[in-house]
Amino acid sequence: MKKFLKMALASSLVLGVLAGCSTTSNLENNTQEHTTGNTDGKVTVGLAVSTLNNPFFVSLKEGAEKAAKEAGVELLVVDAQDDTAKQISGVEDLIQKKVSVLMINPTDSAAIVTAVEAANKANIPVITVDRAAEGGQVVSHIASDNAAGGKMAGEFILEKLGGKGNIVELQGIAGTSAARDRGQGFHDAVDNKEGIKVVASQPADFDRAKGLSVMENILQGNKDIQAVFAHNDEMALGALQAVEAQGKDVLVVGFDATDDAVKAVQDGKMAATVAQKPAAIGETALQTAVKVAKGEKVESNIPVALELVTK
Asked: How far, in Å, CA of 33 to CA of 208, rounded?
């Protein structure tokens, strides 16, 4: 009997040691999840992009892909196609896949907050790209200074008009930080200037076809227009098409410096575009994500330089 009790006691001690090892292992895994969002040591970055129907965001994605390949990390991309509900669903999918870091280019800066908070609860660091989020914990925001770009465009228009003329503003998607900031910078430059009047400010949702139709409607109601500032090149190119169809001589300025817009500037059709360098934004965002995954400190705001492209 004594021999049996000794054997039972020894077995209990062994089981206790094994249980202790198991508990320690789980704690270490939990710590790793809190730091990187996954447990296998592999760095996987998720990119939730607003739309790949816009060449700007295609270039941004390609910049991120290039940097991911160079860093030897996996990049998972989900395309919201400018649908906020679809983007939130895509982010949830990336969270389920336990990506190490999540990069979000919001379709809507306010609506995306719930998705950012969901990532926060899953201990997955969030980086916002080009457009900011209005809430949740964001480790870093990588973008050009949209307000400065809008002001740059406004000042260029003032100079070309000689301080006198009527201007149309085509706005981006309501609720995006890019539309808000570009519009703010533009108005900081042109508002309350004697001889200058913004005769129409209407949304065309960063879309070329909408830029065309909105500009056609504006031209029907107002024939005396000297310049157009569009919050992106797609809308600017649509506006240019409407202007050319009516044989009008109107100064058109866009934003993003997409290939089509730069060609239009070189051909003398568009007056200018603000170069935002989307590939550099994507590349910088991915490089920042890798640093975050490795536990390195990063700046809360990382700007990417702007420049005005003219003929």
From this structure: 43
H or E segment and range at residue 169: strand 165-171
Q: What is the mean pLDDT of residues 291-310?
A: 96
Give the 3-state secondary structure of residue 130: coil
pLDDT band for 305, please (50, 70, 90 cuts).
confident
112 conformational bin, left if phi > 0, alpha if psi -120 to 50, beta if neither = alpha
Question: What pLDDT does residue 28 have?
Answer: 29
Distance CA 41, CA 31 (A): 12
For residue 108, what are the contacts with CB-CB under 8 A and spacing of at least 6?
84, 173, 175, 176
Report, in angstroms and rounded to the nearest whole number, the Rg of the chain calculated over CA atoms.
Answer: 26
Does 2 have pLDDT greater than 60?
no
Q: What is the mean pLDDT of the chain?
A: 89
E strand or H helix that includes residue 197: strand 196-203
CA distances from 24 to 18, 27, 31, 125 (A): 10, 5, 11, 24
